[in-house]
Write a structure and sequence with these properties.
This protein is of the alpha/beta class. It has three domains: about 90 residues, Translation factors (Elongation Factor Tu (Ef-tu), domain 3); about 110 residues, 3-Layer(aba) Sandwich (Rossmann fold); about 80 residues, Beta-grasp domain (Ubiquitin-like (UB roll)), CATH 3.10.20. The chain is about 20% helix and about 30% strand. The strands form four sheets. The chain has a six-stranded antiparallel β-sheet, with helices on one face. Strands 9-8-7-10-11 form a five-stranded parallel β-sheet, with helices on both faces. A five-stranded mixed β-sheet has the order 13-12-18-14-16. Strand 1 and strand 2 form a beta hairpin. The radius of gyration is 21 Å and the shape is globular.
């Protein structure tokens, strides 16, 4: 077994909110787990060979167990249904060691935490961590209704509950979240963190940029990508720098799949341009970025791209493989 995976036991599974299950994971021998930082996620290996990423929602100060919470999505790619229906208390599963593409900015003096729906999972871990540090932060949590609000009791009973506001879509305008006021009222040294459904995040980031927030103060993590169909896209080629092999990438085929057919394996995980696992350096050519991981500045630089979903604007890409 790879040293980047661990076997853990599901010591507790519970209904956290309507459609949301919580899972507590520990080593079978109850030995400590690797430490993680706020905003980190783990790969969870599920029945049927699926691998999905779930944010750790417990306190980073704790290393005896990990907690995740998963929204059942019948329109998704099958991962949430697999973990809801086929992973039970007492089961042993494999997970990856924690990775963090959504860390708290250590240089920030103040923090604005924004969560939409199940996007509360990494935001909750951040709130726990920032409270432990004694840092300045406020948290806004937008959900559809009270019965769909994960961790409402935990937040209500927390020592930082006065810094948290929960906004319900069905509870009237008087308690709705006013994003513009939150953005306008934030000090210039505030960093913003947002996680949730794609539409929620796009709206938050667009408004923040409209208010003049620079990208270096905007931190976000998408749960799923919005990768367009590539069946109508033109073909192109990639050259593997180490071997000189030139490989055709036809329409409807990802770079990862084209490389794999020629024996060149690229490590992947989400396959939607979200997690950053497959990030590859581009030595020549111009990528057509279709991921949700790289920043706009990184995409403009063209030094890296995600071969699981992105393509090429030039006839050839030379890859540092």
């Amino acid at each position: 077994m790879s040293d980047t995976t661990l076997t853990v036991e599901v010591v507790r599974k519970w209904d956290e909110a309507r459609g949301i299950c919580g899972f507590e994971l520990m080593r079978p021998d109850r030995a400590p787990l690797p430490r993680f930082s706020a905003g980190a996620h783990i790969d969870v290996h599920l029945p049927g060979g699926l691998v999905r990423q779930y944010s750790l929602c417990g306190s980073p100060e704790r290393n005896d167990g990990y907690e995740i919470a998963v929204l059942r999505d019948e329109r998704g790619r099958g991962g949430s249904m697999a973990i809801h229906d086929h992973v039970h208390e007492g089961d042993r599963i494999r997970i990856g060691v924690p990775r963090n593409h959504f860390p708290v900015a250590p240089q920030a003096a103040r923090h604005l935490l924004l969560a939409g729906g199940i996007g509360v999972t990494p935001i909750l871990s951040m709130a726990e961590h920032l409270h432990t540090l004694g840092a300045s932060f406020e948290m806004h949590y937008c959900t559809r209704s009270r019965d769909r609000t994960a961790f409402a009791q935990r937040l209500a009973g927390s020592a930082y509950r006065d810094r948290v506001q929960i906004h319900f879509d069905d509870a009237g305008e008087h308690q709705a979240f006013n994003l513009d006021i939150a953005l306008e009222g934030a000090a210039a040294d505030t960093h913003l963190y947002v996680c949730g459904p794609r539409g929620f995040m796009d709206a938050v980031l667009a408004r923040a940029r409209a208010h003049g927030w620079p990208d270096q103060r905007l931190h976000y993590e998408f749960f799923s990508g919005a990768v367009p169909d590539s069946a109508e896209d033109p073909a192109f080629q990639v050259r593997v720098e180490s071997s000189g092999a030139v490989i055709d990438v036809p329409p409807g085929c990802s770079v990862v799949d084209a490389l794999a057919k020629h024996g060149v394996e690229v490590l992947t995980s989400c396959e939607q341009g979200v997690c950053g696992t497959c990030m590859t350096r581009v030595l020549e050519g111009q990528p057509d970025h279709r991921d949700s991981y790289l920043t706009n500045e990184e995409k403009a630089a063209g030094e890296y791209f995600m071969p699981c979903c992105s393509r090429a604007k030039t006839a050839l890409l030379v890859l540092d493989l």
